[in-house]
Amino acid sequence: MTHARLSRCYYLFLLITFPSLLTNLALSTIPKQTPPPVTQPEYTFRTQPQTNPNFYARIIIAMEKENSANLTYMGRSFSELSVNEDSSAFSDCNSDRSGEFPTASSQSRRLILACAAENSDDLIRQLVSDLKSCSIDGQKQAAMEIRLLAKNKPENRLKIAKAGAVKPLISLVSSSDSQLQEFGVTAILNLSLCDENKELIASSGAIKPLVRALKTGTSTTKENAACALLRLSQMEENKIAIGRSGAIALLVNLLQTGGFRGKKDAATALYSLCSIKENKTRAVQAGIMKPLVELMADFGSNMVDKSAFVLSVLITIPEAKTAVVEEAGIPVLVEIVEVGSQRQKEIAVSILLQICEDNLVYRAMVAREGAIPPLVALTQSGTNRAKQKVSLIQNFRLLMTPGPLLQLTWQFILKINVVLLAIF
């Protein structure tokens, strides 16, 4: 074995063992501070995260513009560890699922769509008129066909709205017939895919009926209502109205109890809505931390990224920091730093830094969970971000009350980092 290889092994051994030993020794010198009582649920962590390559898709462009954040810690900016890469963590909500609605026959559907291509304006006017029919079956058929027209031909979305379909569809959203309600919600969702329709849908009074559907509807109705509220929330003024209508607690419930699609749609909607402070507070009060921590702890859920990004927008308020500690979120975040994907590690680091800011008790808790060695190990990547991670680790020395031994420990760790980055 060459001298260079021996040197690398020696430095790697020091990196793995010495920081942990010195950190534990330093922690033993800190006066004990009693953290808030925490009930520690048991989580089963996987040694390696599982990632579904088909899981990631583009986020809604408007959401990305509204929610891009530049996180700061101790007065310093860490833009590369913000949610700037959230664009592949969320996928668009839509109703494009085969078999979602029954039709009289596939031949009937093809005929209607063919007619729509040739003379869509006349057909749309007829369907809007049928929405006001006294026959529930007639209303269902009209709502179903409007939903299909809006789904398959984007240019029809504006035509349908201009033909006066929005208000009668909102009436269907409030229907006591569960199937009719489902058809109405999904048609509204597809119309909301057109940016020009969002203001009309909101001003026509759709928010409260959609929130009621989120509470009382079928599973598909709830999922599509969550997506429709997400679309409307891309207008800043609608975020306040949606939050004050009671949607946040219902979305938190869907995040906790829904199927995979329901959890995904709820997380995406909450991510958008919680960009404003009052909705963050509502989400924390509704108990969002428990499902978020549980989903982040389960690498097989395909929800680690989404949950972490939702937490990243919440963690800026003190109530969220307290709640994530009470729900045993710190060990989960440390586990993500250790075994998560590169993106998961970076967002977990940014959340941990937010938690530790201005709180000595939380800093000590993070250190005792073993966060320092994996943070040091992140600097071995050799990427441009590794340089910024070194800066983060320099700030992380403030996890504990400064003292001569701790200062010596951190000076040694940082020198080892510099040497390792130079070697590897």
Describe the secondary structure blueprint for this structure.
Layout: H1 3-27, H2 61-67, E1 72-73, E2 76-77, H3 106-131, H4 136-152, H5 154-162, H6 166-173, H7 178-192, H8 195-203, H9 207-216, H10 219-232, H11 236-244, H12 247-257, H13 260-273, H14 277-285, H15 289-297, H16 304-314, H17 318-326, H18 329-339, H19 342-356, H20 360-368, H21 372-378, H22 384-396, H23 404-423
Helix pairs in contact: 1-21, 1-23, 3-4, 4-5, 4-7, 6-7, 7-10, 9-10, 10-13, 12-13, 13-16, 15-16, 15-18, 16-19, 18-19, 21-22
The helix/strand class is mainly alpha
The strand line-up of the biggest sheet is 1-2
> Could you report the average pLDDT, rounded to the nearest whole number?
76
CATH top level assignment of the domain at 95-234 = Mainly Alpha
The sequence of SSEs as H and E is: HHEEHHHHHHHHHHHHHHHHHHHHH
Over all CA atoms, what is the radius of gyration? 26 Å
CATH topology of the domain at 95-234: Leucine-rich Repeat Variant
Spatial shape:
elongated
The proportion of residues forming helix, as a percent range, comes to: 55-70%
> Strand tally, please?
2
Name the beta content range: under 5%
Pfam families: ARM_PUB (PF25598)
Keywords: Repeat, Signal, Transferase, Ubl conjugation pathway
InterPro entries: ARM-like, ARM-type_fold, ARM_PUB, Armadillo
ARM repeats: 164-206, 205-247
